[in-house]
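Mods, move this if it's the wrong board.
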Amino acid sequence: MPQRWKSKVLLAKLETAYGTDPTPTGALNAILATQVRLMPMEGQDQSRDLELPWLGAQGTIPTELHRKLSFRVEATPSGEAGTPPAWGVLLRACAVAETITADTSVAYNPVSAGHESITLYQWVDGTLYRLSGARGTATLRVTAQGIVYFEFEFTGLWHDVTDTAQAVPDLAAQIALTPTIATTANTPTFTINAVSLVMRSFSLNLGNQVERRFLIGSEAIIIPDKSEAIETTVEAVPMATLNPFALAVAQTRVPISLVHGVTAGSIATLAIPAAQMQRPQGLENQQNIVEWPLRMVPLPETGNDQWVLTLT
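Not the wrong board. Structure tokens:
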């Protein structure tokens, strides 16, 4: 019987000990995802390079086995101030810390040490693909008239693929959180250097360097470095209002503020205190309106403060 591609269940749970499966359940750890892409058996194929008296191919030995999983989730807050969203656990596995202020807010910011890991269960119609010790990277994307998404890519330790009864996911709360489309009304604030701009698109790439470290005595997925990047497209304005060319030449650091959502419990505020403008590399014509594609780099000031995402 063929397997149905659309029959998928995704679970994610934080690990208390690296690489030790915490056994996520459908009742508590289900993730509402879209555009799932699974690479079930990544690694290398090592030839024995035997010297033989005849010509022909040789068999190989699979090494450095690992698994990759990428998907998108709606970047919608939980609906209750001080309650983490379901996707919070995913951000925490991307070298990000979570700070909860009861009944008030949940804040996320990058961290340089103490990186957490998760175990992911991905079912495809009764076949279980498990990733333990998983860490990854993410990109936050905001597009005019579109849903705000996080795009995640995780790398995890490899396990045998098994036929396992598919978990029953509890997705009711996540489905009920209808996302607000990015519009003028729903995204009331977008400023660069305190200048309000008309924005077409915005992305913050966490830029995590995710690597496999497979040694004798220790096999792990690590994040040894990161380099965040911002890309945004905005309507051009007079140089007297905002001059990205002069800012790039002067290597000026400027603040960025982006607020999406207007209802308590569903407001996400992205604060980037010191973004360096990169060289603008062109102009774009959209409906005979000039638009700037801008690139910026969030820089730390005191450390681990390149950006903060606060849900209120």
